[in-house]
Amino acid sequence: MKKIYSALWMVFLFGISMLSAQEKTITGTVNDEGGLPLPGVNVLVKGTTNGTQTDFDGNYSISADEGQILIFSYLGLKTVEREIGSSNTMNIVLEEDASQLDEVIVVGYGTQSKRNLTDNIAKLTADDIKEVQNPNFQNALVGKAAGVQITQTNGKVEGGINIRVRGAASISGDSQPLYVVDGIPLVDPLSDNDVFVPGAANATGNGAPTNPLLTLSANEIESIDILKDASSAAIYGARGANGVVIITTKKGKQGKANFALNLAQGFSQPTNKRDYLNAAQYIELFTEAGRNSAFFDPDEGQAFVEARFDRYAGDTDWRTGEVDTDWQEESFQDGYQTDVDFSVSGADAKTSYFFSGAYNNSAGIVRGNELEKASARINIDHKLTDKFKAGMNLSFSRAEIDRISNDNAFSTPLQAIAQSPLALTRLPDGTPNASTQYGNFLFDLDNSFFKTIIRRLTGKAYGEYKFTDYLKINSDFAYDFYSQTEDDYDGLNALFQSTSGQSTATDIYSENYIFSNYLTFDKTFNDSHDVNLVLGTEFNKINRRIGSVTSILFPSDAIPTVSSGAEVIAGTGIQRKSTFLSYFARATYSFDNKYLFKASVRRDGSSRFGKNQRFGTFPAFSAGWVLSEENFLKDSQTISFLKLRASWGQLGNAEIGDYPSRYLFSSFSYNKQGGLAPLQPGNDELTWEKSTQTDIGLEFGFFDGIISGEIDYYNKETDNLLFALPLPLSGGAATVNTNAGTLVNKGVEFVLNTRNASTENFTWTTNFNIANNDNEVTALANDNADVITGRNILRVGENLNAFYMIEYAGVDPANGDALYFLNTENTDGTLNRETTNNPNDAERIVAGNPYPEWTAGLTNNINYKNIDFTFTLQGQWGASIFNDAGRFESANGDFFDNQTTDQLRRWQQPGDITDVPEARLFEGNGTARSTRYLDKADFIRLRNISLGYTIPKNALKGVGLSKVRVYVSGLNLLTFTDFEGGWDPESTLDVNGPAQPGIAFYSAPPAKTITLGLNINF
């Protein structure tokens, strides 16, 4: 028996010793892909409660047995599992988990997972914009979001950006989306749709808008969420009708400080140049035009033309071809862009920080147009206690712009193309040639300047207190200060200068205060019921001030300040203000992660509207059903995700200026006494435009997400349109602001994402999106009476601001007359399609749509080992552009403007079949505003392309760098289009108001840019 006990005792001791031998301490470090240590990583022995976290330096220590599995997890990074072997050391590298990062969507006053979203929101990340070096970061968004059309007005460096979310939804109001940066709704102090006190527009520069987000740099941006449907945007109520663009700036990630430096140098040229007549062709065409003119007999006409040639040629001999000036080349220049930005970021268990700075210096493709801007940002979050944290976002930016005249001014460089090629640009002594047909823009280039400086300070201080794990309160105070100074000086020898110098100094200031407080309840009950509630209030006050002074008679161009002028001849001083008071609530509910519901409401009050209609209520509802969680699909090997969602809601538009409902008076002087005169009749019933939107969508994923996407149908009806109703002139005012009319936008959006390849060394993903938008005016004021503005019309049953003009019918082959379709109404109601050579006899028709009916984008991202390659194609179809400059530059020699070379195919003898009428000086043969100058603006463009190489990490060991990447990128390199009505199918007149879209007039094309860049991470 003793032997048995002894044997059992030995077995027990051996087992204990074996167990003791297997259990050991595992130590190591956890780093990110850049080699930086990660603090706070969870380390857990699988199947147990034994766990720990990494310290500030990424180190950990845990006791475990050989053969057990350690799990390393961290928010936003892929979870890693490793089996414990014989070694006591285990070092881990965690990679970013793109699927997790993409799940978080910013929805306004909170976030929500993409999976449980019942709204239509397009999300873009920093990776979508980082490769496009451009002063306007919005250019990088083009083609990336279905139903979102982004165009730059023209190719000037400060050019305005037009973003339309699901079409244009207003007649007189602003159609731009609301921009929200880190919770701060930004105000465009000088929107071209901002109807403010008459006279103010004359005090704000050259009349062309600048990009309100010009001062925001791409290196600051973490993500951009575009709220497209009413359910998502209704939380912004009265200002969400045109969509909401939420921009979230970067924060520090846990780990040691990460320093990033980016350097880039770009070189730009116009995307397109047109062919104009050279000197010999010019002489040929205009000699013929003079001989054909009915105002002269042939010999007199030729003599008249030759006298003009003598005038333009000056002391040179045009008969021998001594001068052949290409004024287009004189107007354009090779541009450049220099970009430098850096950031320092990091975080520990309590504090997160992000510091950044950026500098851009750009010379545009149009002579005299340059931009220099600098920006800085500080984002800090600090956890004071387990319940309370506070933070601050602060940014400052400064942009200095050398501006040129707007497209409609003779002094703009691009109107120089109208000059005769027989004329010198400069005389032998270097001074500009004054013997040109029109004013020579070089006089302004040499003797004047127009400098705009924009300074913007945006900041937010906020606190968050957690009562419990599921209930918290946020209090935010934000401030947005915008300052724009303009100095416009025309010296003694400037173009059209009648005095010894004129100077105008303008100051524009805008202050925007936002105070927000909101409660958030977020709790899961019984592991099945997820409830999120938000309840809050917001107060927004906007103050604006505009001042301008003009003086003349300067002793010298060397002292161009206003105070140096001998006489002050004009002055303007304007103050404006508006306020918003809002209450909002939102509730989301999810049952078993497959039945989803959401409701929100916002009540807004605005000082802009009539005293009887100050408040409006904007509700929204949405629901979703994750079918892939149902038993009949849960085990499907094909369908990995399937969600049906629908939403309905109402939104408002308040962007029509500060005093549209008020009775306004203007001051005047009579017999040296001040007085007041009526200026604007008031309307106490003026209220919101209200947009009612319905959205039905299907989100899908196949083969574990290898193929995914969504399909949406939407219907957006905007009624109570803000409208400037014409009044009889005898009343003393031209218009009264009122609510009248209804506009409908509806369409379909399709998004397809594919993971074409995914191996250790090779990945390839594709995003394709296409969207259709049809808009129609369904009601107007005064019993649906037409409203005609220039070449555009508002008519029930037609597109918003449709083109309205007489129809060009070509050329009479018998005599070279330009012909127009009569389009008068026959007795049976049909159109009379007979032709006439008198444009005054022809009736106007609806001839085109200024807005595209289809937009699309295709993006490919390819990575092979250390090489990355990406490109985006953008397309649009269905829009037209009217080239108002065609009446001068493509006018078959009607006046002495230089002509496009297609005018050489003019009619010359009976029987000629052509679309260009006979050249006849001063006769206006075919130069009426007609569909002759209306062209389809369909195109496909290689919007951006980038090729990069990342140096292997092994090669960087010992030099203190975690990442080095070199790249080359291109912007607007190729455009495929049949468009001939101007330089580019996207460029339009930069002084257009919303009532006359789609008009081009010597409008600069965008730049195509090639950039070399270097990214360095420490």
Automatic annotation (TrEMBL):
<dbReference type="InterPro" id="IPR039426">
    <property type="entry name" value="TonB-dep_rcpt-like"/>
</dbReference>
<dbReference type="GO" id="GO:0009279">
    <property type="term" value="C:cell outer membrane"/>
</dbReference>
<dbReference type="InterPro" id="IPR012910">
    <property type="entry name" value="Plug_dom"/>
</dbReference>
<feature type="domain" description="TonB-dependent receptor-like beta-barrel">
    <location>
        <begin position="425"/>
        <end position="973"/>
    </location>
</feature>
<keyword id="KW-0472">Membrane</keyword>
<dbReference type="InterPro" id="IPR008969">
    <property type="entry name" value="CarboxyPept-like_regulatory"/>
</dbReference>
<dbReference type="InterPro" id="IPR023996">
    <property type="entry name" value="TonB-dep_OMP_SusC/RagA"/>
</dbReference>
<dbReference type="Pfam" id="PF00593">
    <property type="entry name" value="TonB_dep_Rec_b-barrel"/>
</dbReference>
<protein>
    <submittedName>
        <fullName>TonB-dependent receptor</fullName>
    </submittedName>
</protein>
<keyword id="KW-0813">Transport</keyword>
<comment type="similarity">
    <text>Belongs to the TonB-dependent receptor family.</text>
</comment>
<keyword id="KW-0675">Receptor</keyword>
<dbReference type="InterPro" id="IPR023997">
    <property type="entry name" value="TonB-dep_OMP_SusC/RagA_CS"/>
</dbReference>
<dbReference type="Pfam" id="PF07715">
    <property type="entry name" value="Plug"/>
</dbReference>
<feature type="domain" description="TonB-dependent receptor plug">
    <location>
        <begin position="114"/>
        <end position="244"/>
    </location>
</feature>
<dbReference type="Pfam" id="PF13715">
    <property type="entry name" value="CarbopepD_reg_2"/>
</dbReference>
<dbReference type="InterPro" id="IPR036942">
    <property type="entry name" value="Beta-barrel_TonB_sf"/>
</dbReference>
<feature type="signal peptide">
    <location>
        <begin position="1"/>
        <end position="21"/>
    </location>
</feature>
<keyword id="KW-1134">Transmembrane beta strand</keyword>
<dbReference type="InterPro" id="IPR000531">
    <property type="entry name" value="Beta-barrel_TonB"/>
</dbReference>
<keyword id="KW-0798">TonB box</keyword>
<keyword id="KW-0732">Signal</keyword>
<dbReference type="InterPro" id="IPR037066">
    <property type="entry name" value="Plug_dom_sf"/>
</dbReference>
<keyword id="KW-0998">Cell outer membrane</keyword>
<keyword id="KW-0812">Transmembrane</keyword>
